[in-house]
Design a protein that fits this description.
Rossmann fold; 7-stranded mixed sheet; 9 helices; 7 strands; globular
């Protein structure tokens, strides 16, 4: 399972998958892979320079470099921030946030995530009000930054996959607008050419700047890009207002 797949927002399977496989474990899996697609994926992982860099640097996934590269361009990570990471498994983005000096980091995912020193992690559902209250209660105040690397399970049907992804982005946007501190920022994975026009209007209404970023660590063949919104104006801003 790739780091992208581990971060997907989905209902837990009967047998939950752990995270942080070593190179040796990957080689064992490669030898035992039963399908050609599995063999190709594992071979790609073993040859991926970002996978090797992540292992050498102690990151739990290559996705850590996506956030590092996004921050290099957009400067969304700052010392002393309170940060919430939606769909945080296996924890690579949390590690980066702490490395950049975040004061408080809280993550939530349907998948179990190994503990990370300096962070609070919940195995829960952002659709569950009780879980959301627990996440917010773990911070000393409203978050300065909301991150989301959530992605829906793919079906192979482009329209269905697009709708599922849009639903998750809408969920993350709603969470950010509801809970962000004034002046805060939001970063979320999106697909299929970016956010929908309606979502883009919503983001531009509530944030001073909105842009799309395709970090180098995102594979060229992947449809993923990330939307970054900065300068949160508040939840009660109406369309057409300049905040």
């Amino acid at each position: 399972m790739s780091d992208e797949e581990k971060r997907r927002w989905k209902k837990p399977a009967t047998e939950k998958t752990g995270s942080g496989r070593s190179v040796t474990e990957r080689k064992v899996i490669a030898r035992n892979a039963r399908t050609e697609s599995s063999k190709k994926w594992i071979e790609r992982q073993l040859q991926d320079p970002y996978v090797r860099k992540a292992i050498d640097a102690g990151y739990r996934s290559r996705a850590a470099y996506k956030l590092l590269e996004i921050d290099e361009e957009a400067h969304i990570l700052k010392r002393g921030q309170r940060i919430i990471d939606l769909g945080c498994a296996p924890g690579g983005w949390i590690q980066v946030a702490l490395l950049k000096g975040a004061a408080e980091v809280v993550g939530i995912d349907l998948l179990p995530v190994q503990t990370i020193d300096g962070a609070t992690i919940f195995e829960g559902d952002v659709n569950n009000p009780d879980d959301v209250r627990a996440v917010l209660a773990a911070l000393s105040g409203p978050p300065d930054l909301v991150l989301s690397d959530m992605a829906a399970n793919t079906t192979g049907h482009k329209q269905t996959d697009h709708l599922r992804t849009v639903t998750l982005v809408e969920l993350a946007v709603d969470f950010a607008i509801t809970h962000l501190a004034p002046g805060g920022a939001f970063c979320s994975k999106v697909f299929q050419g970016g956010t929908t026009q309606e979502l883009l209007v919503t983001l531009k209404t509530h944030f001073k700047t909105v842009k799309h970023i395709k970090p180098p660590a995102s594979r060229s063949g992947s449809p993923e890009i990330f939307v970054v919104a900065k300068g949160f104006k508040g939840a009660n801003v109406r369309k057409g207002e300049n905040g």
